[in-house]
Records
---
Amino acid sequence: MSTSSIIIIIINIVIAVILAVGLTPLFVWWERRISAFMQDRSGPNRCHIGPFRLGGVIQSFADMLKLIFKEDFTPSHIKYKFLFTISPVIVFICSFLTFAAIPFADVLVIDGKENIMQAIPTQLGIMWFLAFAGLSVYGIILGGYSSGSKYGLLGSIRASAQVISYEAAMGLSIISMLISYGSIHLTDIVNAQAGTYLEVVPMWGIFIQPLAAIIFIICAFAETNRAPFDLAEGESELVAGYHTEYSAMKFGLFQVGEYGAMSASSAIIVTLFFGGYQVPWLDTQAIQSNINYVILAIIIILPIKVYFLTSWMKKNNKAIGSDKSREKETKILTSSFWFLAITITILLISFLVFGLGTNGVNIATAIIQIGTFLIKFFMMAFVYIWVRWTVLRFRYDQLQMLGWKVLIPLALLNIMITAIFVVVRGS
Amino acid sequence: MGIQVVPRYGKSFKDKLYLPAIAGGMKTTLKHFIHNLKDNNNLRTMQYPEVQPTDLNERYRGVHRLTKHEDGSEKCVACFMCATACPADCIFIEAVERFDEYAEKRPKEFKIDLLECVFCRYCVEACPCDAIRMDTGIFSFVASSREDFVLDKKALMTNERSKDLNNG
């Protein structure tokens, strides 16, 4: 194994860890501020280090610190201490490992050697995702069971019943995707979504299989135990459901696991249905052969974006009264954003002037694709939060009704249609 | 009287699909989100310590005050009506004889324990001489010890009618 492939593997693992676990404070912040803005509230924006409020993101770090330093309390009535301790770990590890099979970019060729851009370079792809996404519910079941409280047990029973009914529909909708793509390896699936129909619509999964996309997205929401499918938590009737008895960082791990599952689900939805790392209308070969134009486009777009960001900040980051720290923060952030933008632009211009080697072109393509993946990933995460703060929680019988009587027959129908289509077309 | 027919929703195919309704709801929330993201002055939240509420009205029950005669002496005649009416037993009055033209008694000491007070305004209703009022508009009363929450006569008489209310 050469040095370059070791470095690439390390980078991939770091990206996966950051996206799966490290983004939790950011997503908590999003959750709070986006929900607040949707309800015409302000949300937490006071917490600060020096003049830096960063729009309130400091608050979620403060909360994280609080959870770490809180007493790790185990109620005395708990008989199965081992299960009680291990269950948040299971949720955490599973949601983290789910991310390992997501490709961040196309196969990266360095000195003629191919590197799969995944945290774990496995060909299992979708199977890996299904395995670990299904496993993470064991943490919830064990946690609720070993809590020794009725609320916890009810929450975990609901979670297990929900996962059984929705995993089936999810698997069936994936089968129709696999029929049309012909591979379980996620890089192959994303590469199959490269082209366009009639030079207009990108060949994404959602346009090939709209029904499967809807079913899969609904089931993925149910799989992550988030609203409208968060009956396992159900704070209106079950206190806090499966994590009623948990406190401190054990509860924090459940929280991180929930957001990790959300990240993993949005990543797999993006990969399967929204073209993954593919830039719309530009496949890998097109980027590699026109790399100069792509760099030029970035050089033009980047300052415009930074201009809009900084002017938006200047307009909205204001304090009432004599406090000058908001202006100070705006000034510091604006200058650092411009510094960053100018540095990147100079770097890109030097690339344009001196030219990139074959490896350089490949790496630049990979970075652009990772950026595309990240943009799509964050948009999908936004959709998760958006749906949570719009749609009401299902009643339990309606949830099961939707799963068994609607989604599974639809998924079966979709498999039939796909299979007939594939057989008739012969491809 | 005619019969009012209430239309039942949820039976048509479009309603049973759920997705159009969900899309409508998501459109509404996104509209609010973008509206507030563009300019956060649109938010309804009041940035409290910097911005103080201005919508106090005559019925608002703030911290108590003792009203005064023209010459600055207290109107209170120490009749103990307020202390009797108080459901929280938080008013402590000590009466002495009074030697001016207003009344025969006056309070030597008049204490209100704000930690026990439930701000029910019964004392104001009970007072026959309009001597105690709750129109100071003080809604956040902070202190660093339990003793500081007990307002004595001097403190109660320095409290004035809120400037936000129309003075008259």
---
Amino acid sequence: MNQTLENPMKRAKRILAAMAALIVAAAMWLPCVHLFFARPASAFYVKEGLSLKARALAARHMQLWTDPQLRQKELDRMRVSNAEWDFMGRSYLVWALANMGLREPSSKPACLQTMDRIIDETQQLEQQKGIYFFLMPYAKERPYVVQPARSLFLDGEIALMLASRCVLEKKPEYEAALTGRVNLIVTGLRRSPHLALESYPDECWTFDHVVALAAIRMADYLDGRDHAVLSRDWVAMARSKLVHPVSGLLVSSFTIDGSPVIGPEGSSLWMVAHCLQLLDPGFARDQYDRARRQLGGSTLGFSYAREWPESWKGTADIDSGPIIPFLDISAGSSGMAFIGASAFGDAPFLAALNATIDFAGFPARKKDALKYCASNQVGDAALLYAATLGPIWDKVKEGWKP
Amino acid sequence: MNVNLRQRMVQNWRSDFFSPRGFLARALVISAFFLAVHLAGLRDYTSVLNGTVGSASAGWKTSAFFGLAYLLAYLAFVLLVPVLILAAGILTVWHRRPHQD
């Protein structure tokens, strides 16, 4: 009897001791994990020259644009989910290469060559296959309110590609194409009573507007025209109509009559704040600080970003990516947060984001090239842009003419 | 595989989970599983985390299955294995402490 009573007690004691050991071990290990991935922010972003990570990400993208099979495989993977990514991957890469060319003059010829190839192919595809080629299928479900149909998503990003290329080195053919796009955007915005242009039918995106306005600002820098009043008017409209009252953050999308549809979203806000740096630096800083407070998060030394602030609950979509429960981590917002952190010199946040992507982004290195398996080409191109941004914006802000 | 080694591994696996040997056996199995999925190239399928299929030919279901399998194996390897090894060490020290009675 004693024996049978003693054994279960002994066993219980042993189990308790083992559980305690597991808890103590977890308490020792988990707070240390980030130390294995911690690097200074300069591992990702440097003020001058190129960080090792930027170089490695760029090497992978250069491979993609010199190996047609590899690129097709990558594009096919992305287009299964979202045709927009094919387009945005091009945009971010061109914008990044323009900055790289300024950062490292010896890389300029290679950057220009790749940029031109991307720009030519993108314009050709848009011309041959129409605007719907780079849009999600729902764009065809109803007609655009403003006819003939144009998408500011395409016009704005192509204009910014052309402008970035011409800021790095002028090319008359592209300058003419840029002027054409800018004129279309400016005329469209001025005709709209609410300074809004559609990206999808009756769907206007703050992201696309600030990208387009940044492109206009760069075109002004290049051709000496002045659209400052239009920019000021648009920012004033955004401040009065597009700011979510509770969070103070800009909403993501709105209708052609300026009514907000989707509230603030991290997957677009970080880039919006960055583009606003060219249009209204004070407002840009305000948006970044708010986004940092309301969307940025940190656990056990790893930083990440949520898709929505507490005061706005959206549903996971193609932009946010799947949302990781409990912490509400969004892959889309976390990736784009790199752009915000680099643009606003937020070194602690950038370093902790960098630790997160090295921990949970599944880096894969082949020779000198780096890709993140948990990302895709557009995600890696956005990271490359985050690691290189600065020189183009600085040049335009300073108004220095080549 | 050597018969003795296999027998020893089976014996270790069957040993009480709440023992240093049990912890180490689980750590070893998790590590072996992670190594297997890593060498099988499932890392590429973690792109499902951002909504991209691992490969256009594999389709969504296969990509999600492989991607999640890799993710769980990786997290277990990086987070759980060191905890199990540390716990085995702590438990060994605990068992070797001089008895009070």
